[in-house]
Amino acid sequence: MKAQRGSITRSVEQPDRSIRFYLLYGPDDSGSRGLANKLLKALDAEKLALTGAAVKADPALLAAEAGAISLFGGARLIWVDPAGDDIVEAVEGLLEAPAVESLVVAIGGALRKTSALVRLAESHGAALSYASYALEGRDADRMVIELGRGEGLQMDPSVASAVAAACDANQSIVAHELAKFALYLGASADRPKELTREVVDLLGAESGEGDMMRLGDLALAGQANKLFEELDRVALSNSEAIPVIRALQRRLIQLTGLRAQIDQGKGVDAVMTSMGKALFWKDKALMQRLLSGWTSERLAAMLERSSALEKAIFFSDEPPVAALEEELVTIARAAQRRG
């Protein structure tokens, strides 16, 4: 079945047990992942990640995992990412199985409407498909307000608009930013706090550009010597540690979405071309190096590390710059070993 924009949120927040396969695709990769995370939360499930390549290599794997009972008895959501037409055989086996214990969600990226996987998901009663497109205007503002409510944040439309603009309406970046605002304010679902423009300006995504972004880029590129020189040049203060981490996180989120396209079979050059004017010409060599060197799994692990470091800095009495510099050097050395 094909879901519409007006019903997709309800479909993932209140999942119908007759649906066993969800295909979330479209050019807004962050929107697809956001919906998949809503489904994961609604099911109160453990995420079992499978790559499209693994499913292709063993088409029976998907139905087998979906039919298996969890070792600890809890719910599982089988998450296939990235997914393309090469998993059609496996999805057919899943849909033909007599029963399943776990639901399956697939992140399809920019699949064409003529895709065999899209056609299968749209035509089968036990499957649901939805194409995500970048939100604009009031739709983007509503998305920010809705995500903020889940973090215990209350805001007026002008603040939501500022957050959406700073994050280019990318739901993954918005979610990360709102989680940081909530942490700073001590907000939660049962203790809501107001998010003001002053807090957004102080801690927001745009506060980590320039030198802040360059430090993370040098680390990810494995350019340890240049990183040391840059750290000496900028002489970070303790108050600048968090903006540097956030600039690094923005780059990691950007790379994660682009790398997913490569995992689906696109070449690095084609992915970079698809960025259009969003990629500054001076950054082309850097982006090519990063996209060629970092896998999706390594990027996800690095994003988790950066989030853990940020939380540790918030609650530690240790000098934050020392912890940040140590992490940047660790990243640079890992990148060198990979190269």
From TrEMBL:
Catalytic activity, reaction form: DNA(n) + a 2'-deoxyribonucleoside 5'-triphosphate = DNA(n+1) + diphosphate
The Enzyme Commission number assigned here is: 2.7.7.7
For the keyword Signal, the answer is: no
Q: Which UniProt keywords apply?
A: DNA replication, DNA-directed DNA polymerase, Nucleotidyltransferase, Transferase
Family as reported in the entry's similarity comment: Belongs to the DNA polymerase HolA subunit family.
PANTHER family per UniProt: DNA POLYMERASE III SUBUNIT DELTA (PTHR34388)
Stated name of the protein: DNA-directed DNA polymerase
Annotated source species: Sphingomonas alba
- Taxonomically, what lineage is the organism? Bacteria, Pseudomonadati, Pseudomonadota, Alphaproteobacteria, Sphingomonadales
